[in-house]
Amino acid sequence: MDNKKLISELQKRSGLDKSMINAIYKTMLQVISEQCINLNDVSIDNIGKFIPKKRLEFTHKDPETGNTLLYPPKISVKFSIDKTLIDKLNK
Amino acid sequence: MNRTIYSEELISLTAAKGDFKREFVEVFVTELTSIIEESLLSGENIKIDGFGEFKIIATQGGEKKNITFQTDESLKKGINAPFEQFETIIIGNDTVIPETEEKSISVDIPEIEENDINDLPEELLQTEESISEISDTVEKYKKSVSEEPAIAEEENSSVTIIPVKEESAESDLPATETPDPKEMTETNQIKDEEPLLTEEDKQESSTTDENNTGDRNNVSENIVIEDNTTLNDSDMNKERKTPDSENENAEFGFYSESDSIDNTQKDQEDQKDKEELLSEECEIVDSDGNLNQNSECNQYSKQVNKSGLYIVLILILIAILCCVIYFLVRVRNEEKEQIVPVEIINTTTTYRSVTDDDLKKINSESVTESQNPTDKKETAVIKNTPTANAPEAKTAAASAGKLYTIPANPVELKEGQRLTLLALRYYGNKCFWVYIYEANKANYPNPELIPIGAMLRIPQPSEYNINCENPQSVSKAKNMAAKILKEL
User: Fold this and answer.
1) Is the ipTM of this complex over 0.85?
2) Are residues B275 and B155 in the same domain?
3) I need a labelling partner for B436 at 20 to 30 A (CA). Which of B24, B162, B366, B423 fits?
4) Which of B1, B6, B24 has the CB atom closest to A20's CB atom?
5) Low-confidence residues in chain A, pLDDT < 50
6) Who among B18, B45, B67 is closest to A85 (CB)?
7) Minimal Cα–Cα distance from A24 to chain B, Å?
């Protein structure tokens, strides 16, 4: 399913405008990203859960060049899909 | 991980942030989740821009299905927005990673954001201008100190003016760093007062000059100082063409008039003392001869500087000379040490020549003394051997001389002599006493009880294969000695 199909489907079901849907969607993404920055898990019902993890800065030696590289800190996000959804899929 | 935010809280947060109705957001979220769930259950992949992509993957040989989610890059960027400023850096192996780098940068960002973006370039320009002005004023101050000995003479006029420049330079920084509206109004007021203050300065200086009309030299000095100060002020005004700089200049005049006098006197007490000393010396010169104080003070300061430079140069030259002398002495000592082994070699050469002569003499003596043909053979053998090393040749020759002076007749044992000493004398090693004992065993069975005056036959080395240089013969003799002593 494409993004366009999804939006049209949402318009049909919810009865909201396209602009309203886009605005709510953008704000929801902002809220998710803010909560992930604060390292809070964000769970969406019946789908899954965003689990952020902070990875600190670390050094790594490149074996080809021999240079030691300092990698910056990073927040990696893992999305764990709900088990009930997988169970439903496998029934 | 702090806590989990469920869909209800997510809805409320989105509604609060976007000023949406909660109902709309709730409907949106529920419909979105239902669409995703339905499409996934129908076996269709979903790609949502800005969110991610759901994919269905067959596992365990197609028997089971699994769902994977790949987060969109834009969402990842949004989550890692605080760390966008960091990049992978190539560092050396020995560098230590600072732990507080992240904190310092994260603290600096909001400070910049708080300020108005339009004000930033002006402030930066002001700071740059202020820095350049500070450097210019400092250079001018240095020049004025070096060029104006009159400043040192007049404490009231010069010493109050000089620090004003520094304070103006110092006062530029806070004015540029914190552009508060109150200060700006104050500076505008001061700008209006500026010309009056400069005129007042001139009037005050002129009145002080008129009071000091007793000495014409002092008057001329004061006039010179006024000119310098006014020139400095004019130069400062020329350099500061912008309105902000004019305000700063107004502050300069304000502080120079009233408030800065006490502070400046406290700050530069050391300079005052030095200048007083210089002025006293200059005045003494005036009383002696009617010369200009300015020129003399300049000359004096130049002489002091020159004498200091000369002293430093002389010290450096002395140090270099000491180093050169030290190295020369060291090189000579090394040369002497190298000469010593050469002398030793020469001595060895002399030894060689001596040993050759000795060998010839010894051989001739041995030929005359010993008439046996066996002795001649051994001498012939010994002739060839010792030429290898000079000291060895000498010892071998000496030992050979003694060996071949073995008497044919029996030797009388004198007081203080022993078999070992006789063996050492005739064979070159003490352990060969055994053979002397064996030759005289019939007459003297106990080697420890040989009386003085006993006649002992010294056997020839060929009888027992005696050779002091052969370790086998030496060991054989030692074994025999051990056996004989055991039997006793």
Assistant:
1) yes
2) yes
3) B366
4) B24
5) none
6) B67
7) 7
